[in-house]
Amino acid sequence: AQSVTQLDSQVPVFEEAPVELRCNYSSSVSVYLFWYVQYPNQGLQLLLKYLSGSTLVKGINGFEAEFNKSQTSFHLRKPSVHISDTAEYFCAVSGKDVQGAQKLVFGQGTRLTINP
Amino acid sequence: NAGVTQTPKFQVLKTGQSMTLQCAQDMNHEYMSWYRQDPGMGLRLIHYSVGAGITDQGEVPNGYNVSRSTTEDFPLRLLSAAPSQTSVYFCASSYWAGSYEQYFGPGTRLTVT
């Protein structure tokens, strides 16, 4: 069965600084990887996803993520953050469980706080 | 399109009461799911459905019941509410659980006293 670990529960960053949110996953089979963002008091929305092909994936709002199969990682990056990026970010992996059912599993979330 | 809608937005229950959280989508998605969100634990899958008439358990199914009589609706029933079920509940839908984007509803904040 697949699992996801987000290595940082909180990340404080100054405005216009770069940021990296770390995500590691485990799965015995091929997976699809996602990053979702949750703004305060809202549902989740998709930032980007990796299905296959190029390991560098670009998403909305200037975010990108790199899939590293050997390190089973899918870290999210942005070269220069803005106050409006303050939100909670969730890494997720979709794969088959032991019964062969396709499931989406989320990490614990990383709260990104941008300070002026 | 309204997307994924959830009702109610807020609910307070007493221990032992039952209730149904409603979820509907108008995108003709086959896959629907319920998650609960608790601080520091991310989203945990409660139940999911791959199509009308088909449901299955997720990671934390105890105390919850679901049914899927139509493609559009996927209600979540709390059989006998407990304080441990205080949480924010999200419904989501997609074409498939695999490579497709999940569309989330706005959430229901439930407090059990």
* Greatest interface (CB-CB under 8 A), with counts per chain: A-B, 24 and 26 residues
Spell out the helices and strands of chain A N to C. Answer: EEEEEEEEEEEE
- The overall average pLDDT of chain A, rounded, is 91
Q: Average pLDDT value of chain B? A: 93
Overview of this structure, please?
The complex is a heterodimer of chains A (116) and B (113). Chain A has 116 residues and is an all-beta fold. Helix content of chain A is 0%, strand content 56%. Chain A contains no helices and twelve strands. Chain A has strands at residues 3-6, 10-14, 19-21, 23-26, 32-38, 44-50, 56-58, 64-68, 73-78, 87-96, 102-106, 110-115. In chain A, the strands form three sheets. In chain A, strands 2, 5, 6, 10, 11 and 12 form a six-stranded mixed β-sheet that branches. A four-stranded antiparallel β-sheet of chain A has the order 3-9-8-7, with no helix packed on it. The radius of gyration of chain A is 14 Å and the shape is globular. By secondary structure, chain B is mainly beta. In chain B, a hairpin with a 2-residue loop joins β5 (42-51) and β6. Chain B is globular, with a radius of gyration of 13 Å. The model of chain B has no long low-confidence stretch (mean pLDDT 93). The chains are: A mainly beta (116), B mainly beta (113). At the A-B interface, β5, β6 and β11 of A face β5 of B.
